[in-house]
Amino acid sequence: MNFLPRKAFVFSFLLLLGLIAPEITFAQNQRIIKAKVNYNEPAQTMEGFGASDAWTCQFAGLWPEAEKNKMADLLFSTQTDQEGNPQGIGLNFWRFAIGGGSAEQGQASGIKDEWRRQASFLALNKTYNEEAMPGQVWFMNAAKARGVKHFIGFVNSPHVNFTRNQKAFSSDGKCNLDFSKADAFTQDLAKTIQILKKKTGVELDYLSPINEPQWKWNEGNQEGCPYTNREISVLIKKLSATLNQEQLKTKIQIAESGQLNYLTNHPDTAKSKQIDYFFNPNSPGYLGNLKNLDRSISGHSYFTTSPEQKAIAIRNLVKDEVAKYDQLRFWMSEYCVLGDSLLKGEGRDLGMTTALFIAKLIHHDLTYANASSWQWWLAVSTGDYKDGLVYIDKSKTNGKVYDSKTLWALGNYSRFIPPGSVRVNMSVSNDQDFYISAYLKNNKLITVAVNNSEEAIHLELSGINQKQKSLSVYTTAEVSNLKRSVVNAEQLNLPPKSVTTIIANK
């Protein structure tokens, strides 16, 4: 359990009880921050926010209707209660894990934890079982029913039928795909897309066939496959040809770099500088001319979150490199807390410590790296780890469902920043432990402020109509989950240790 400093907790508790109003008049020594929206400095156009069904949803999707619907509502719902408080965080991207067949292998897979083995429609005997992934299919249908618009199929390892060692992880830290079977692998991916469309009515918008190719994936803790840039280029060209042959609309998305500097200037030249390698027409691995390659490149924010100035520099470089290529977009396509100098991955945290860390990271990825999409790792987790949005008991059949503050803090972005919003730059008078970003859509300004300090803050927001008396404000803090309030434009007051979304007219 996380304990806020007494002042922060008391403020938040009184706010929840209604004993003080959000528009409380602060003392003269109250911290005041002035933020200006610079409409003449537009940045990226936002596409959305998402998470993956990996590992847990294969079992959680088999739970009783009430419990699994609660999970789905928390992740996807755009409904509100009678007071206007959101019932879920409205994700609009959903990542479907296309497994490598380790689940069917069981203990022989070499992956000890069965919750980390993944199923596949393709069986070991080379036939197809369209009923092999019912839990994941349930969540895909639940996402669709709640309005999710974009679906991504992602692959951690080729199916074991196509690997060198018949395992879903590498034996020697080198690429485990048997390239003599690469065409069969791409045909299996096309068949998977067709089966999913048959079962859900959804033809995947994107297919990501490579995941964190820089790692060796030789420990057998989970499915994974290393690739060099050259190997990726060869595979993607084969996959492109197969998708064209099958007349599928699905776009290929690359390259899920294990950390952001592999996109730019990491010294491992065989696996780095991926933006240039895949999108520079003079590169031997150029893929930008493939009509079904999405004009985006993705990376993961792992191991690049501190120290602060280094984290910012890495993201600025990603932005600058992406900007060299016409209409190229950057996705931050996976993150959870694995470990940082400020926060360790071990230990489940349902409170504000991790939530504030993630809200700040989202801010940095959006404002420095110009990410147009931001996607979390495990939507549902059973572990004693900071890797989930929703947590459940580790049971294949039933149990309790637990929401987290990290879920709701992500919701401060995902629930209110619609696709097509344009991020606009801001200037801030005092940004110590304070992070703010703004997004414009249809004359509405959506502002997300992260107050990581122990002080309440009065925000003077320049660039909106100051005569407005009905700004919608949604606050996530120790005692509130996207709690809605309505305030005047001059009464923007942010609790300590909180994430706040403000919706105003321009």
Automatic annotation (TrEMBL):
<keyword id="KW-0378">Hydrolase</keyword>
<dbReference type="InterPro" id="IPR013780">
    <property type="entry name" value="Glyco_hydro_b"/>
</dbReference>
<protein>
    <submittedName>
        <fullName>O-glycosyl hydrolase</fullName>
    </submittedName>
</protein>
<dbReference type="Pfam" id="PF14587">
    <property type="entry name" value="Glyco_hydr_30_2"/>
</dbReference>
<dbReference type="InterPro" id="IPR039743">
    <property type="entry name" value="6GAL/EXGAL"/>
</dbReference>
<dbReference type="GO" id="GO:0004553">
    <property type="term" value="F:hydrolase activity, hydrolyzing O-glycosyl compounds"/>
</dbReference>
<feature type="domain" description="Endo-beta-1,6-galactanase-like">
    <location>
        <begin position="35"/>
        <end position="391"/>
    </location>
</feature>
<dbReference type="InterPro" id="IPR039514">
    <property type="entry name" value="6GAL-like"/>
</dbReference>
<dbReference type="InterPro" id="IPR017853">
    <property type="entry name" value="GH"/>
</dbReference>
